[in-house]
Amino acid sequence: MKNVIVTVVLVALGVGGPAAAQEPVWDPNTVELQRLPVAPGVYALVAAGAKELEAKGVPLATTGGIVVGSRASLVIDTMLNQRLTDIVLKEVGALTRGVPTYAVNTSYHGDHSYGNALVPQSTVVIQHEATKAYVDANFDADVKFMLGAFGPGRGIETARARTGDVLVPKSGLVRLDLGGKLVEIRDFGFAQTGGDLWVWLPQEKVLFAGNPVIAASPAIPWLLDGHLQDTLDTLTRVRDFLPADATIVPGHGAPMKKANLDWHVQYLTALRDQTRVAIANGATLEQAVARVDVSGAERYAIYGWVHKQINVPAAYKELKR
Length: 321
Ligand SMILES: [Zn+2]
What we know:
- Helices cover 36% and strands 18% of the residues.
- By secondary structure, it is α/β, with parallel strands linked by helices.
- Helix 6 links the parallel strand 11 (206-210) and strand 12.
- The site of zinc ion has 7 residues, from helix 4.
């Protein structure tokens, strides 16, 4: 059972692969993050070479964000370890000559939130109330899993919990005015963890998505906690919410156009419909895993794990009910 859990967590981090524990696909000790301007005062911190690599289906490091207004600044996701959090703080320093006023976690995943304890105490940490509940109950176990996924010597051993100073309730919305920069921190519903927050800039039409949108095609959603239909509903809701010319900054990739979200919705829809057919035809789980195949997704380097070991079983379990 433990091995199964560790395998699931490896995939959760995008570090999957048979030799993952020794050699993660992206190494938090060496990965280079580049600051890309997305709109005036709005930046994404993206792994070097992301556009080319993600097109080949390579899983990438956590993408972060910085929004700078005339009065305040906001960091989106505080990263995994001291090295990566320091990169974020250095970029904020270069842009503002100060420290972040706010930092938001798009989920409890360690690569998006362990840095909470590493940003200044004065930085106001914002997270979903479900994220705080998860961290309060599971932090030590979570750190162990992350250590298993990334291996030792990557600054995970010293991780400390810091939960939100401001908590966003279920279906909630927090509005910030950073000074000429309006920010909405939204809960659109279950998207991967149940404590998923999206950062929307209505003037710039930029959405920071976190893990519910991993990267542009061929990356696919990971139904780590199940909830296929809820996730599909949420991604559809996000798609309906966004104007046609919106930019999405995904959780592990380069900024993309709204149209790229269609792929994720298509994948989940096909996964649901094909799994339904398999169940209707009396397929066992193993048969369903063999039959359900969404064309195009196989180009994702960790498709075998995410699709066959996580998503199809999650869909089967949910639809069988
Ligand atoms: Zn992540």
